[in-house]
Amino acid sequence: MGLLRLSWKNLTSKPLSMLLSLVLFALGVGLISLLMLINNQMQDKFDKNLAGIDLVVGSKGSPLQLILSSMYHVDVPTGNIKIKECKAFFNPKHPFIEKAIPLSMGDSYKSYRIIGTNPDLIDIYEGKIESGKIWEKDFEVTIGANIAKDLNLNIGDEFNSSHGFVMDDNLVHDDIEKFKVVGILKPTGSVLDQLILTSTPTYWKSHGSHDHGDHDGHDHGDHDGHNHEDHDHNHDHAHHDGHDHDAHAHDHSGEHADDHAHKHDEPATTATTGQSLTDFPEQEITTLLLFFKHRNFQTLNMQRNINENTEMQAATPAIEINRLYSMMDGGMVLLQRMAYLIVFVSGLSIFIALYNSLRDRKYELAQIRVMGGSKSTLFSLIILEGLLLAVLGFIIGILLSHVGMSLFAGYLKDSYQYTFDGWKFLPEEGLLLIGALVIGFVSAIIPAIQASKTDISTTLTNY
Amino acid sequence: MLKTYNLNYAYDAANSFSFPDIQCGEGEKWLVLGQSGCGKTTLLHLLGGLLKPKQGDVIVGKTTINKLSNAELDKFRGKHIGIIFQRPHFIRALTVGENLQLAQKLAGIPQNKTRIETLLNRLNIGNKINSKPHNLSQGEQQRVSIARALVNGPDLILADEPTSALDDKNTHEVIKLLENQAEEENATLVIVTHDSRLKEYFKKQILL
Description:
- The complex is a heterodimer.
- Chain A is of the alpha+beta class.
- Chain A has two domains: 3-46 and 331-461, no CATH class; 55-315, no CATH class.
- Chain A has helices at residues 3-13, 15-50, 63-72, 83-90, 120-124, 145-150, 200-208, 243-249, 297-309, 317-360, 362-370, 375-416, 427-452, 456-461, and strands spanning 55-59, 81-82, 97-109, 112-117, 129-132, 140-143, 158-159, 162-163, 179-185, 195-199, 284-285, 287-292, 312-315.
- By secondary structure, chain B is of the alpha/beta class.
- Chain B has one domain: 3-Layer(aba) Sandwich (Rossmann fold).
- Chain B contains six helices and ten strands; from the N terminus they run ββββαββαβαααβαββ.
- The chains are: A alpha+beta, B alpha/beta.
């Protein structure tokens, strides 16, 4: 019957009197821990997915939206851009640009996004093939680790894509070729895990050839006289039905003199996987991820140039993400302060509960002295009760926060296919335990001093 | 075994008590008789080390207990002195058995469940070991408090008005119980009371 057991029994024999303190403490700790978990895992995801991307180029709109949609795959894209507008970035001799990765998006399969791109995208997230291979032909796809697991897809499986990012049976493209899984990637912990990757030309085909029947690319029937001054037409993000593309693709005009690959008159309406995208200036992609050779004032100027002088916009991921952080920070800080307030109130409530219990227990305390307990025994007894409450509140709070995080992770998974881990523990939670112990100790210290001052003789005389 | 010299205690200038010297031998049974307000309880607290005298010494065995430090005194009391109060107090959260275990623990004596069971059986409350004390009758509670006073095999047992609330029959029983148990433990017994019914039980008496 040590002191620890005694204080435990004291607490559990009157559970109601400590319930409020415990619930408050657990709520406070839970909220703080939940905020830490969200913050940490969010930042982790954001950082992992930065992947060294220096600039994102896409159609005009919100720069944050551009970043979120093309790097984190959480928002809808701002629109599409034509290859001819961004052709210069693909030039391997570009003085500043080391690499440009095109992204086409707008379709999904069971709410996992399908991205038309090139294999460089896998490299920037340090993805490796787990089984199969990277796509080589049209309509071949290589899928991220999470998709393979969640949808139980294997090499050789086929599926129809669907329009938009949410699952909707009415929007399934059942009139085009099926996508065929040819490769599965190893888990990377990045956004790559939840993407279905294919070639850009496949994207064009899945959007541009609904009524072609064949893919010979010579269907000029719907040439409706568009010319190339139509940049201001509405880029209805990524959802062109494709007729326009085909109509434009062979409509060369003088401004394409630099289009070296396209001097011939033979119109190429449909690219095939592996062909250079710059051969198809009228086709569209959604965004372009740029990697610089060096960051300097010229690259800064380039961003300004794009924003001021073209129909496109360029956004720097780090800046936009910092902007996002600072927007979230306001809310986070407010929640955090509330959590600290709750913890403070719970500390106060532990103090009051312990203090009040002294009056009921003065004979017990005196009796402990009679039985050989010293003043420090009584002091320790009350402190232990405060600490036990704090530890108990801490454990319940941590459980609450991790259960909450699991629920939140489930929600994020449903809406964005992002995987958060509810049961990942942080070293900061150890600090939280220390903080909890300090609060338990401080709340108990005045009652403990009071208890240690119990005058045995007077107490036992005045009954 | 128990000796006091020049014992004096003062709550304040108007309330000071001087006590006659006491000398009790080992295993002896003494009665301290006095009217209310004459300092009986004060004396008991002085003997039990719950109060420190303003003057004089209390010697239990070979130890002058008023010379001990506070913590030493607490340990000494737990180990060597068993005190029975008029109204017993227990730790409500603990069972009878656990209350007795706590007494062993606080005195720094190894936990001994057999000792506790034997003692409770001797006092005819062996079946109450797992009950909460406040669920027992008053008589049973009184026995538990006797068991608790005895559990560490004390040299000195002090009892404060153990019979004041009891009728003659029960008074007889409790006194016999105390006498028998003190004899079993070979402990010195000092009963402090104003209950003159007890005079017939004890030859050795001190009048305050």
